[in-house]
Design goal:
The protein has 616 residues and is α+β, with helices and mostly antiparallel strands. Strands 2-1-5-4-3 form a five-stranded antiparallel β-sheet, with helices on both faces. A five-stranded mixed β-sheet has the order 7-9-10-12-11. β9 and β10 form a beta hairpin. The chain is rod-shaped and about 220 Å long. The protein starts with a helix and ends with a helix. The C terminus is likely disordered. The structure holds adenosine-5'-diphosphate. Adenosine-5'-diphosphate binds next to α11 and α12.
Length: 616
């Protein structure tokens, strides 16, 4: 059955109730009508007939009186009509006897009417004097009887009318009560039936709605099972098909997701280095097998329990990286092996370099981060070996190099006899190379001292200006030889710094040597110092070729030299400078555009008293 038919069916009981009420009303009205018809037919017509008979008798009586009084008139037609009316009404009355006593009164009227007519005819044929006597003696009594008879007929019928009308009123009251009862019953029955049918009709809709709600809440097994073929059942069928497809899609995309997750798990598990994936809140999302075996990360535990057995160094590093990523600085890549942190693991202490990558959400916001601990223990050991080896070699070079330099010096001075110009040129070249070699040996020995932590600072309050002046003085000769202008820019405020003058001199020497080395003849090198907040910034600028942009980040690494550089040492000078500056608590950097020269700068902490003086 279609939904339309069902809806029509739901309205049927109410329609039937209406019909029932209509029928009952019709019957009631018909019954009332019947009652009034009865009164009209049975009594009212009899009353009318009796009255007409009386009128006819009156007319005839009046003619008789006139004749008795000797008043002649042409009343034959009138008499004839009155007689016809009386006869007609009498005959009607005789056929409409309905009440007790009415028959006798009618019969009496009939008999008296016959007698009256005989007397009247005789009266009319008599002379007026005789006629008056006949009237008074004979006609008058019959007239009275006729009057009485017709009056009795009227009274009987009027009483009956009153009775019947009373009965009709009572019947109408009964009918009205019955109608009210029928209306109420029809309403109640119709309402209950409609309610029942409507409920049955809407039940499938609520089943469907429930299934839709469950599906909306993620229950993909929800189905609306409805029998029949109506529109709701069809919608339920479509809904079930949709839910089926959704479940299939979910299981297939779940499968893909699972596969993707397993692939990424396999990928990170295949890495020998520990990998952690964390939420920005620090909650562990994933970890690879190496993290579990090396750091004791328990991925199956929840919350902080995951890190229960994890070394504190790892936890500290997680906190640092979290801060880095949360501050929006992006990925973190360590700049060198010196950032490696020692972590106690099962096999003993191992060194790890931590690098991190932010994990972005749908809107591009940082929601977590990955953390890779690269095991650099072996690399570090090689590095140490290399540094040790280089330091040993440098150390071994020192004594022979000193005697070599001494010998060359003595030869150049002529202590071993006069030199030919050719010999002198060769010895000058040998001296320059020895000096260069000495520089490299010194750098290497400085480096090994720095790396073994043997760099000791003897800090004191010194004037920044005097440090600059002294360093520049040391290099005036070299600047002259190279035809380069070397100057110190006058300081606006000479703020004392807290520094080890010998070490800072080494830094300035390195920077000035580089500047003079790489600046072509006719160029200039300038040294200046400027106060900063609680520090002094020292700059060495030159008009040399500058440094290509891509090499700037690596300039302060050990053994790094800009490719193609002919002169210079082993690429250690800037590294050593930075280490010394940072040991003082300062920072070091470079600003350079290719072809525009270079500005190497570093900061030194201002001496405490000078800070107070400056701020006061
Ligand atoms: P080196 O002892 O070999 O000079 P440094 O660490 O002092 O090593 O310098 C590293 C590299 O930086 C040098 O090889 C050179 O290429 C570059 N460099 C340093 N200073 C300057 C400068 N003032 N102008 C141009 N290049 C420079």
């Amino acid at each position: 059955m279609t939904l339309r038919s069902k809806l029509l069916l739901a309205q049927l009981p109410l329609a039937l109730s209406l019909l029932l009420v209509g029928l009952v009303s019709r019957r009631t009205v018909a019954s009332l009508d019947h009652n009034s018809q009865d009164i009209l037919k049975d009594n009212y017509l009899s009353v009318l007939a009796a009255q007409r008979m009386r009128d006819a008798v009156d007319t005839v009586g009046r003619v008789a009186i006139s004749h008795s009084l000797g008043v002649e008139s042409d009343s034959a037609a009138e008499i004839k009509e009155a007689r016809r009316i009386f006869d007609r009404e009498l005959s009607f009355q005789e056929g409409n006897i309905t009440e007790v006593g009415e028959k006798d009164a009618t019969a009496r009227a009939h008999a008296t009417w016959t007698q009256f007519q005989g007397v009247f005819d005789r009266l009319m044929e008599s002379l007026p004097s005789k006629a008056a006597e006949i009237y008074l003696r004979e006609l008058q009594p019959t007239l009275v009887v006729l009057e009485k008879s017709t009056a009795e007929i009227v009274t009987l019928n009027q009483d009956a009318m009153l009775r019947k009308s009373d009965r009709a009123r009572k019947s109408a009251e009964r009918m009205s009560a019955a109608m009210l009862a029928a209306t109420l019953a029809a309403f109640v029955l119709g309402f209950i039936a409609s309610l029942y049918i409507t409920n049955r009709l809407t039940r499938p809709l609520s089943v469907l709605a429930q299934a839709v709600r469950r599906l909306g809440q993620g229950d993909l097994a929800a189905r609306a099972r409805l029998p029949g073929t109506d529109e709701v059942a069809q919608v339920a069928g479509e809904f079930n098909t949709m839910a089926e497809r959704l479940a299939e899609y979910r299981s297939s995309s779940l499968g893909e997701l699972l596969q993707a997750q397993q692939s990424s798990q396999a990928a990170i598990d295949s890495l020998p280095d520990p990998v952690l994936v964390l939420q920005l809140s620090g909650v562990l999302l994933n970890a690879n097998a190496a993290a579990a075996s090396l750091f004791g990360v328990d991925i199956d535990a929840s919350g902080e329990a995951c890190f229960a057995r994890v070394p504190s160094e790892v936890r500290t590093m997680i906190g640092k990286m979290r801060e880095h990523v949360a501050s929006g600085k992006g990925a973190y890549v360590p700049s060198g092996l010196e950032e490696a942190i020692p972590i106690p693991v099962r096999e003993g202490i191992q060194y790890f370099l931590a690098r991190t990558n932010p994990v972005l959400g749908e809107q591009g916001q940082v929601v977590g981060f990955t953390l890779l601990f690269q095991d650099v223990t072996r690399l570090r050991r090689f590095d140490e070996l290399k540094t040790d080896l280089v330091a040993t070699v440098a150390h071994e070079f020192r004594t022979p190099l000193t005697s070599l330099r001494m010998a060359i010096h003595l030869c150049i001075e002529g202590s071993a006899g006069a030199l030919s110009p050719k010999q002198a040129d060769l010895l000058y070249a040998a001296r320059d190379d020895c000096e260069r070699l000495q520089g490299i040996v010194d750098d290497i020995l400085d480096l090994s001292r720095i790396q073994s932590g043997k760099i000791e600072l003897h800090r004191r309050t010194v004037s920044a200006a005097s440090l600059l002046e002294q360093a520049v003085d040391d290099h005036r000769q070299l600047a002259r030889e190279r035809s380069i202008e070397l100057r110190v820019s006058p300081m606006t405020i000479d703020r004392p710094v807290l520094a080890d003058p010998d070490r800072i001199r080494l830094v300035l020497t390195n920077l000035l040597t580089n500047a003079l080395r790489y600046t072509p003849q006719g160029g200039s090198v300038e040294v200046r110092a400027a106060p900063e907040t609680e520090a002094v910034r020292i700059e060495v600028s030159d008009t040399g070729p500058g440094i290509p942009r891509e090499y700037i980040p690596r300039l302060f690494e050990r053994f790094f030299r800009v490719p193609g550089t002919q002169e210079g040492g082993a690429g250690l000078g800037l590294f050593i400078c930075k280490e010394i500056v940072e040991a003082h608590g300062g920072r070091m950097g470079v600003e350079s555009d290719p072809g525009q020269g270079a500005i190497f700068w570093f900061t030194l902490p201002a001496a405490p008293s000078s800070v107070e003086t400056a701020s006061s």
